[in-house]
Design goal:
The complex is a heterodimer of chains A (506) and B (335). Chain A contains 19 helices and 20 strands. With 506 residues, chain A is α/β, with parallel strands linked by helices. In chain A, strand 7, helix 6 and strand 8 form a beta-alpha-beta unit. In chain B, strands 1-2 form a two-stranded antiparallel sheet. The N terminus of chain B is likely disordered. At the A-B interface, strand 2, helix 10, helix 11 and helix 14 of A face helix 10 and helix 11 of B.
C-alpha cells in the first residue's frame, strides 16, 4: 500500500468537452490494485463522464490514459473491456427472460467447436463466479425470478466474467436495503483480496469511510484533490467536494399547521395496500417511512390517479373528489414528484421550458393556442427560484444532470400552484449540496401553506424534515408517530414489524 | 457543470437564433432537394414547365398528402395507422352503394366522412381502450376494411356518381388551381396550426417522447391518441371523396398500397418514425418532392415500377445521408 506503487489505471489531464459545457477539465484519477478509490463529487462534477471515458464509451478530447504505465486509447467499449476495465452501472442492463448464466456471459459465452454456445461450460463457469462472490442461487434460474439484490450480484458476476482488473461501481447501493448493502461491502472486500482495483462512486459518506482506501474529488469538471481516506475526515472531504462548508442540519421550522386539506378514508388496492386512513393539514410535512415494497409508492400513485384504488374516498378541503387520472389529480391540486425521474418525471426530448409548462398549459395558453412568451416567463420564474443550472431554457432536459432534472420536475409541479405535493424519495441519488437545497425548499413550501407528503427511506431525512411520520408495512399503516415518539429506533421497529417487547428481549 | 457561484444565474431562453435553427433544419435540406429536382426536371423535359401540366401533377400528392398530415401527428405520438388505404376503399364503396340508390353529392360527402370517422374510431378503440399495439391492429383492419369492399363489389365496380360530385376531384378553384390542391393547402394549414401552435399539438409531442412521463404530467394520453385515430380516419374519408370523384368509379382495389406512400411521405418529411419529432412544413415539402419525382419520371416515360425504385432510393438516401455525414465527422474528430 505504498504511495509509490504504479497505479493499474491512471487518467492524466483528461479533458472532455460537450457542446456548451466543459464536462472534464484536465482531471487526474489513479486506481491501485487491491484498493478501493472513492470518486466523490456533486451532481454534474463529471463522475459519469469519467466512467464513460474509462469504459470506452466517450473518447477524451485531451490527456492520456495509462494502464500499468503504458499509454492506451480505447477506440470503443470492447477495447476497454479487453483491457480489463469493467463497470457495474447505476442501472446495469440485464435481461429478465434469460437465465442467470446467460446474463453473465451475454456477448462472450464459451463456444463449442461447432461455434454453438457451450451451455455446460457456461453454467459451470457461472456457478464458480457466483460462488466467488457469495451468491447461492442456481445459474439456471431465470433472472426475473430473482430479487433486486440478487440481480445486482448477477451484474457483478457479469462484470467479473471478463477477467476484470478494474471494477467500477457507480452508486451500487442506491437501490439496496440495509442488509443487502452489508453483503455488498463483503463483496467489495472479496474483490480487493483478488487484487482488483476498484473505483467506487457514491454519495453516501458513511460508506465511503467504511470501505474506501483512497479518495479523489472532482468539482464542476475539475480535479480538486486526492489522497488516503485515513488522512482525511468527513468535514474536510465535504468541504473539498462543495468548495464551501456545508453543515447538513435540517432547516429549523415551527410547524404552522392549520385546517385539514386532504383526508384519505379507507383506501385499498387488491394487492398493494389496504386500510389507508390519514389526514394532511395545511402547511404540514408528512413523512411516509417503510421498507422497500411496503406499498408507499403504490399508494401515492393511486392518490395521484395512476392506479385505481378498489375502495376508499379522498376528500379535499372537506368535499369528496373522484380522482381517476393524473389530470384529475392535478386539477384538484395534488401533484406527484416520482422516484423514477427519467421515465416518469421528465420528458426527455422536449426542452426545459416545455417540460415545466406542460401541466400549466391551460394557464399559459389562450383558448387552446400556445403562447411561448408566457411559457418562457413561467419556466424562468420557477427555474430561477430553484437555481436551475442549464445552458438555455430551450435545451433538451435530457442533457441536464440528475439533480437539475429533479429541479425541472419540481418546477413543473410548483408552477401548477398545487395544494398538496407528494415527493417520492426526493433526494435519492443527489449530492449533499443539492440535498440541503431540496430540504430548505421543502421547508419553505410548507411555510407558504403547501402541504407536503414526503416518501423517504432515509431515516435522518424522515426525522429531520417531518412534522409527523406514517410508517407503512406490507401495504398497511403500521404506526403514526410524532414528537417524542419519533426516533430512529421506533421507525425501524415499526417498519420491520417488531414490537417493543421483542426488541427488549433481543 | 460550470462555475459554482451561489447567486441564481441567468439562463437565456434560447442559445441559437430562429434563422440558425431554420437553416440547420431537415426542412431546409428537403427544400434544397425539392428545388434540385424541379431544376433537373425542367432540363429533362420541355413539357415540364407548362402550368397546366404542373397543375395535373399535383394530383400525384394531394390525396396522399391529406392523409399524411393526420398520419404525421399519429406517428409523432408514437402510433401508426396502416389501414388508411383500406378506409378509402370502404368509404368509396359505401359512397358507390349510396349513389346506386340515388344519393346526392351532399349525402355522398357525409357518407364518405362518416365511414372514415367510424373506421378511425374502430382502430382507436382497440389501441386506446384495449391497449393493443397499433401496428398489429391496423394491419388487421387493413385486411378487414378492404375485405368488406371485396365482398360488396366482387369483380364489379360502382359508377354513376352525380355530375356535381365530380367537382372535388376534377374541378378548379381559380385558374390552374385544382379543388384538391386547395383542400390540401387548407388541411396543411389546419394541421400545421394544430401541431405547432396549440396545447393539443404540444401534448402530441410530449406523448411521442415519453408516454409515461406525459401521463404523469397530467396529460390524458389515451384521449389524445383516440382523437388522432379519429382524425386519420376522417382524412382518409376526405381522400376517399377526392379520389372517387376524380376516378368517377369505385373498384375494391382503389388506392391499393397507398398506405406505404403515405408513410414514406411522412418519414421523408422528417417525422421520426419512432415518434416525438417532426413538423408539418416538412411533410408539405416531402409531398411536393414525391409529386415532382413521379411527374418528372412520368414525362420521361419511365415505367411505374422504376418510379417506385426511385422513390425508395430517395427515401433511404435522404435519411441515410445526414447519418453518414455525422459518422464521417465523428471519425475525423477522433483522429
Amino acid at each position: 500500500m505504498t504511495d509509490h506503487a504504479t497505479p493499474v489505471v491512471s487518467m492524466d489531464a483528461i479533458t472532455k468537452t460537450f457542446p456548451g459545457v466543459k464536462a472534464l477539465d484536465a482531471v487526474q484519477l489513479d486506481l491501485y490494485a487491491s484498493q478501493v478509490t472513492a470518486l466523490v463529487g456533486e451532481n454534474g462534477a463529471g463522475k459519469s463522464t469519467t466512467v464513460k471515458i474509462l469504459t470506452g464509451i466517450y473518447f477524451p478530447d485531451g490527456g492520456t490514459i495509462r494502464i500499468d504505465g503504458e499509454p492506451v486509447t480505447f477506440a470503443n467499449a470492447n477495447a476497454a473491456a479487453d483491457a480489463g476495465i469493467t463497470a457495474i452501472h447505476q442501472e446495469t442492463v440485464l435481461f429478465d427472460e434469460l437465465t442467470v448464466a446467460e446474463n453473465i456471459f451475454i456477448g462472450h459465452a464459451p463456444r463449442t467447436r461447432w461455434g454453438l454456445i457451450d451451455k455446460a461450460a457456461m453454467q459451470s463457469a457461472a456457478f464458480k463466479l457466483l460462488q466467488d462472490i457469495g451468491a447461492t442461487f442456481d445459474p439456471r434460474t431465470l433472472l426475473r425470478d430473482l430479487g433486486i439484490a440478487n440481480k445486482h450480484l448477477v451484474a457483478v458476476a457479469r462484470a467479473l466474467s471478463v477477467d476484470a482488473r478494474v471494477v467500477i461501481m457507480d452508486e451500487p447501493t442506491a437501490a439496496l436495503s440495509h442488509k443487502e448493502i452489508e453483503e455488498l461491502y463483503e463483496l467489495v472486500e472479496t474483490l480487493k483480496k483478488q487484487g482488483k482495483a476498484i473505483l467506487f462512486i457514491s454519495h453516501k459518506f458513511d460508506e465511503i469511510f467504511r470501505i474506501a482506501d483512497r479518495y479523489t474529488v472532482f468539482r464542476d469538471g475539475g480535479f480538486v484533490g486526492a489522497g488516503l481516506i485515513s488522512e482525511i475526515d468527513e468535514d474536510a472531504l465535504v468541504q473539498l467536494m462543495v468548495g464551501r462548508t456545508v453543515e447538513h442540519i435540517f432547516p429549523e421550522r415551527t410547524p404552522n399547521v392549520a385546517e385539514d386539506v386532504l383526508q384519505v378514508v379507507g383506501y385499498a388496492h387488491p394487492t398493494e395496500f389496504a386500510d389507508i386512513n390519514f389526514t394532511l393539514k395545511r402547511g404540514e410535512i408528512l413523512g411516509f417511512y417503510g421498507l422497500v415494497g411496503a406499498g408507499r409508492s403504490e399508494f401515492m400513485q393511486s392518490l395521484f390517479g395512476i392506479t385505481k384504488p378498489s375502495k376508499g374516498v379522498c376528500k379535499i378541503n372537506g368535499s369528496i373528489r373522484v380522482i381517476r387520472s393524473p389530470a384529475d389529480a392535478v386539477a384538484n391540486g395534488i401533484v406527484y414528484v416520482p422516484e423514477d425521474r427519467g421515465k416518469q418525471g421528465t420528458i426527455i426530448g422536449l426542452p426545459i421550458f416545455q417540460n415545466i409548462s406542460l401541466p400549466s398549459l391551460g394557464r399559459t395558453s389562450k383558448s387552446g393556442f400556445l403562447r411561448l412568451a408566457e411559457e418562457f416567463k413561467l419556466a424562468r420564474e420557477y427555474s430561477e427560484r430553484l437555481d436551475l443550472r442549464a445552458a438555455s431554457l430551450d435545451q433538451d432536459v435530457g442533457n441536464l444532470s440528475g439533480g437539475n432534472q429533479q429541479k425541472v420536475v419540481i418546477a413543473k409541479w410548483l408552477a401548477t400552484q398545487p395544494q398538496v405535493i407528494i415527493l417520492d424519495e426526493p433526494t435519492k441519488g443527489i449530492d449533499i449540496g443539492s440535498k440541503a437545497a431540496v430540504h430548505e425548499f421543502m421547508a419553505e413550501l410548507a411555510e407558504q401553506g403547501l402541504s407536503v407528503i414526503m416518501v423517504s427511506s432515509e431515516i435522518p431525512e424522515v426525522i429531520g424534515m417531518s412534522d409527523r411520520v406514517i410508517v407503512m408495512r406490507d401495504g398497511r399503516i403500521e404506526a403514526e408517530l410524532e414528537g417524542d415518539a419519533l426516533s430512529p429506533e421506533t421507525l425501524v421497529r415499526h417498519a420491520a414489524g417488531i414490537s417493543a417487547t421483542q426488541m427488549e428481549e433481543a | 457543470m460550470s462555475d459554482t457561484t451561489m447567486a441564481a444565474r441567468f439562463v437565456p431562453n434560447r442559445l441559437n437564433s430562429r434563422a440558425f435553427r431554420i437553416l440547420r433544419s431537415w426542412e431546409a435540406l428537403l427544400l434544397v432537394v425539392a428545388v434540385g429536382i424541379f431544376v433537373l426536371n425542367s432540363f429533362a423535359s420541355p413539357y415540364f414547365l407548362n402550368v397546366w401540366n404542373l397543375s395535373d401533377a399535383t394530383y400525384n400528392f394531394t390525396e396522399k398528402g391529406m392523409i399524411a398530415f393526420a398520419m404525421a401527428l399519429l406517428i409523432i405520438s408514437g402510433e401508426i395507422d396502416l389501414s388508411v388505404a383500406s378506409i378509402i376503399a370502404l368509404a368509396s364503396t359505401a359512397m358507390g352503394l349510396a349513389a346506386q340508390y340515388g344519393a346526392g353529392t351532399t349525402e355522398l360527402v357525409m357518407i364518405g366522412l362518416t365511414v372514415g370517422l367510424l373506421c378511425g374510431a374502430f382502430n382507436a378503440f382497440f389501441v386506446t381502450v384495449l391497449g393493443l399495439p397499433s401496428i398489429v391492429v391496423t394491419i388487421g383492419t387493413m385486411s378487414l376494411f378492404r375485405g368488406i369492399s371485396y365482398i360488396v363489389l366482387g369483380d364489379g365496380a360502382y359508377g354513376g356518381y352525380p355530375d356535381s360530385f365530380a367537382w372535388f376531384g376534377q374541378g378548379y378553384i381559380y385558374w390552374v388551381f385544382t379543388v384538391e390542391i386547395a383542400i390540401f393547402a387548407v388541411i396543411a394549414v389546419i394541421y400545421g396550426v394544430v401541431l405547432h401552435k396549440t396545447n393539443f399539438g404540444r401534448a402530441v409531442y410530449a406523448i411521442g417522447n415519453n408516454p409515461t412521463g406525459a401521463l404523469f404530467s397530467g396529460i390524458r394520453v389515451q384521449r389524445v391518441k383516440f382523437i388522432l385515430f379519429l382524425l386519420t380516419g376522417l382524412m382518409s374519408g376526405v381522400a376517399a371523396i377526392c379520389l372517387t370523384s376524380r376516378l368517377g368509379s369505385t373498384r375494391p382495389s382503389i388506392a391499393a398500397g397507398m398506405e406505404l406512400s403515405v408513410v414514406t411521405m411522412v418519414v421523408l418529411g422528417g417525422i421520426n418514425i419512432l415518434g416525438g419529432s417532426g413538423s408539418i412544413p416538412g411533410v408539405v415539402i416531402a409531398a411536393v418532392v414525391m409529386g415532382l419525382v413521379t411527374f418528372g419520371l412520368g414525362l420521361l416515360n419511365v415505367p411505374g415500377i422504376v418510379m417506385s425504385i426511385f422513390i425508395g432510393l430517395l427515401l433511404i438516401g435522404v435519411i441515410a445521408l445526414p447519418r453518414l455525414w455525422a459518422m464521417i465527422a465523428a471519425k475525423r474528430r477522433k483522429i
